[in-house]
Amino acid sequence: MSKLSLKPKGEHGRVQEVTPQSAGWGHVGFALDRLAPGEKSAAETGDREVCLVLVSGKGRLLIDGKDYGEIGERMSPFDGAPWAAYVPAGNRYAFSATTAVELAVCSAPGAAGFSARLLPPGTHDQITRGKGSNTRLVTNIMPESDGAAHQLLVVEVITPGGNTSSYPPHKHDQDDIPAESYLEETYYHRFNPPQGYGFQRVYTDDRSLDEVALLEDGDVVMVPKGYHPVATIHGYDNYYLNVMAGPKRIWKFHNEPAHEWLFTGLGAPAGSR
Question: Could you tell me which residues belong to the region Disordered (predicted)?
């Protein structure tokens, strides 16, 4: 089993948690709460900023005492765009489930000067990326273009069965703007139907890191560095929620040279097969 892949801890409560300390990095935090109606997820953000993503279900949200009412819409991550909310550093949030809920708690180091806000469906467009068997549906929840956070970048992707995503392979592990940015990343995976599975490879150019994770419903994969493509098998759509953060809130990636030709459309290099 890959050391970068985490299985859910049970079916209820905080079933996934990645902290900078547990991951051995400096920025990204991720947690997943499964709540029954009437149950609550609440915390002080301290020196971190948080993006709450309703993977599924509905609930009432308060941020620093302000009641945002009931939010949420979809009952499955495969059924429409997400509701989310941004909670700055130095705030407190309290989310009370009104239905069964999967709530993702995405975090990174925060800073002053940012405001709490709701991110309802339609805040950012859903776009289709890629072509053929590399087609996937992308929903930016907190992209770099919105300027609304200190470090956090959050995005959802749905990859149809038999397709690939985060592909052709790319990486973002060098603080070398404008060519490439340093961003740690987590993937939270779901499958439809849930007995489906897929694969994710995380590897560096020198292969000092080279792991393949078998992906099942509810798994989390940590990407500290390197390329990280995903493939799902025929008949099972794959959803993942990405959390990225680093010293600069910029997503600049570097494509693996061996597969660069897939972008250019000029054909495979000589000697390939």
Answer: 1-20
Which of 123, 131, 178 has its CA nearest to residue 154? Answer: 123
Which two structure tokens, joined as six digits, stand for 10?
């049970």
Rounded Cα distance between 32 and 13, Å, is 8
Beta carbons within 8 Å of 226's beta carbon, 6+ residues apart? 171, 173, 202, 203, 204, 209
State the pTM of this model: 0.95
* Residue whose C-alpha is closest to residue 70's, from 57, 51, 86: 57
The amino acid occupying position 154 is: V
- Consecutive 10-residue averages of pLDDT for the chain (273 residues): 91 97 98 98 98 98 97 97 97 98 98 97 92 96 94 98 96 96 98 98 98 98 98 98 98 94 61 36
HEC states along 3-43? CCEECCCCCCEEEEEECHHHHCCCCCEEEEEEECCCCEEEE
Is residue 63 a contact partner of residue 96, using CB atoms and an 8 Å limit? Answer: no
Cα–Cα dist 120/81, whole Å? 8
Full set of structural domains in the chain with CATH: 5-261 (2.60.120.10)
Residues with Cβ within 8 Å of 70's Cβ and at least 6 positions away in sequence, in order, are: 58, 59, 60, 98
Which helix (H) or strand (E) segment is 252 a member of?
Answer: none
